[in-house]
Amino acid sequence: MKRPPVRALVTAAALAAGVLLAGCNGEQLSPSSKANRPIPDKLLAEIEAKNMDKGSPMLVRLFKQEAELEVWKQDRNGKYALLKTYPICRWSGDLGPKVKEGDRQAPEGFYSITPAQMNPNSGYYLSFNMGYPNAYDRAWGRTGSQLMVHGDCSSRGCYAMTDEQISEIYALGRESFFGGQNAFQVQAYPFRMTAQNMARHRNNPNMPFWKMIKEGNDHFEVTKQEPKVDFCEKKYVFDAEKPAGSTRPLAFNASAQCPAYQVSPEIAEAVQDKQRQDELKTAQLISRGTAMARSRAGIDGGMHPIFASKLPEGDAAIDRDVTDYAIASNGPAPGTVPAHATIPRAPEGAPSSFSFTSPGSNSEPMVAVTSTTMPAGTASANASAANSSEGFFSKLSRSVGLRGSEPAPAPAPAPVTTATKAKAKSPAPSKTARSAPPRVIPLERQQAQAQPQQAKPAGPATAPAAAAPAPSHPQSLAGAQPAVPANSFDSRWSTVR
């Protein structure tokens, strides 16, 4: 009498369990749901062509200055390889880490993304939470929440893609989880960690932090494996292992002293060799006149040129100083840019985003970091950088014999004559002439414009140095900016100015 009801209950329980299990099976989920859309066939073909599996582990790298997102996947040989680069539609804030809630800064550092951080019901189409603040951020008292990579091309401290792009990235992450990956790593950088970029940003007050996360970048680039990330003494530690002969597991605490650990000698040697080469290249670039990066003061975030060029007046927002884009700006935009998308621009009354600081100035933008949130030793390093235009790499270049023993003193201002004042005065434009469209002045001309104009004395030169010819500079490396005469802008473009 009791067997049929019991059998019915068992059958019902089995069906319920089957429904629950089906919910964890990506192949059984509704294809109409945006969070469960399959990876496009073209991308699946690229995965196969690169000797990867759909469910193999993935890793994401973000670069603010270039506004590009890279997706890497593990191939069948166990190494990570670049699968695809996506242009970022919008990011907000400035170069530098996020410090506090409301500063509009997109995070920089290393973050781990678990399935619980994937949001299929995001108000920005789809998203995943970056996990800010991590243990390092919390150790420095940094605040902020809900920092995402999402769609909708709109950012307030996030990395925003188009809806079509985030759909692909979300699907790649979902399939990696289904393939057995517990969490994928996100590495967020201010720019590609090249010698050229380190030279251009050499006096930025965030440089100590950037050097620290560059070490993690170097670990990844020399091993093509996801670096193991730990935190101690309020700093990042990469690929730490137990010392030889130790039986106790390593215990890391972001705010406590580091335990005794070692890095595999093979990895440590490869990383040190890469760092030595990068530092030497950086010193060479500085000694050969590589200009410092422009000031971004007042500019809110950035946008990849492939999107900016498609928006009204977007050409004016393209960073002409960036030359290492992986994606050309003359192709079709990958996805729909919504009507509410805005280009990064300076606030009303602020200097133009294309104005350069003179090579000797210290007006690099800096994050509002208080003494309670600044890494140890950073305050003194920043004070030194603020009092002298010569940065760390400039000193390094002299130590390896690439520059003179001391930086050249600034030339004394020449007397201004009446003829000089007349020459500097620009002719008034005709009232009937139409206003010309905004121009983007090439980098070398802007650099010349930023240099102080030296007027010729009325009488003969009194100092021997005034009659000496300008020293010739050695051949520049690829990407280094050539030296330009200080009067080249006035001689050719005085009317425009």
UniProtKB/TrEMBL annotation:
Coiled coil: none
Pathway membership: Cell wall biogenesis; peptidoglycan biosynthesis
Residues at the catalytic site: H150 (proton donor/acceptor), C158 (nucleophile)
An example Gene Ontology molecular-function term: transferase activity
Signal peptide: 1-22
Organism domain of life: Bacteria
CDD domains: YkuD_like
Similarity annotation: Belongs to the YkuD family.
Protein name as annotated: L,D-TPase catalytic domain-containing protein
